[in-house]
Design a protein that fits this description.
With 220 residues, the chain is mostly helical. The protein contains ten helices and two strands, in the order H-H-E-H-H-H-H-H-E-H-H-H. The protein has a two-stranded parallel ribbon.
Length: 220
């Protein structure tokens, strides 16, 4: 009996992994209509007996202002175009920072890692989730281009309660299309990504200034 249980568990894991792999390949041509994180938020709302409202509109990367594209990269993953899914330099900095402070701090996840989490996993922090995430990242980098990864990321990430993607965020906070974002507005939107359920663009003066400085240093 224990062997059957183990075999069944292994078969389930392999099956789910294969399903995720197939989904990643299909993402080369198909835009996701929902994500694991969006479904997680829906379930949380149902459990809390809250009304769940979702604003999500997928747009092409060309329809997202270069200001917003560069602001997000500057804020979340400055070496996005150079690494292959894992930024070992940033991870070392995070580890050294955690050791100095003697506690776990920022995650140091790349855009690719965050995309995998949003599409297939949940916001729950655990070693299991991180392990699954890490195993799927190479597949994303192998089958999708950097532009497609960035396009998917900008369209599916959470930007506030029920607000997913650059278009929905731009319309919600600034009443304009994502293609119209100014550098200042883009930096403020990028600044709330680490904690979208708590932060507001208008309150991100200090961090948005840091992002603008990073953009300037890279030629934007």
């Amino acid at each position: 009996m224990p062997r059957r249980i183990v075999a069944g568990f292994v078969s389930l894991v392999v099956g789910l992994y294969a399903l995720c792999g197939a989904g990643i390949v299909l993402l080369r041509w198909i835009n996701p209509w929902t994500t694991a994180v969006q479904m997680e938020r829906h379930v949380q709302a149902l459990r809390a007996h809250h009304v769940y409202k979702k604003s999500y509109e997928f747009v092409l990367l060309a329809s997202i202002s270069p200001n917003l594209q560069h602001a997000v990269v500057a804020a979340e993953d400055g070496r996005f175009r150079q690494h292959h899914g894992f930024d070992w330099i940033e991870m070392q900095k995070v580890l050294e920072d955690d050791v100095k402070r003697q506690r776990l701090g920022r995650g140091g996840s790349t855009i690719t890692q965050q995309l995998v989490k949003n599409l297939f996993l949940t916001t729950e922090r655990s070693f299991v989730r991180k392990g699954v995430e890490s195993s799927l990242v190479p597949l994303v980098e192998a089958f999708l281009t950097k532009n497609r990864i960035l396009e998917l990321y900008l369209n599916v990430i959470e930007w506030g309660p029920g607000i997913y993607g650059a278009e929905a965020a731009s319309e919600h906070y600034y009443h304009m299309h994502a293609s119209q974002m100014t550098r200042e507005q883009a930096a403020r939107l990028a600044a709330i990504i680490p904690a979208p359920l708590k932060r507001k663009p208008e309150r991100m003066n200090e961090y948005s200034a840091v992002i603008l400085e990073r953009m300037e240093q890279t030629g934007w």
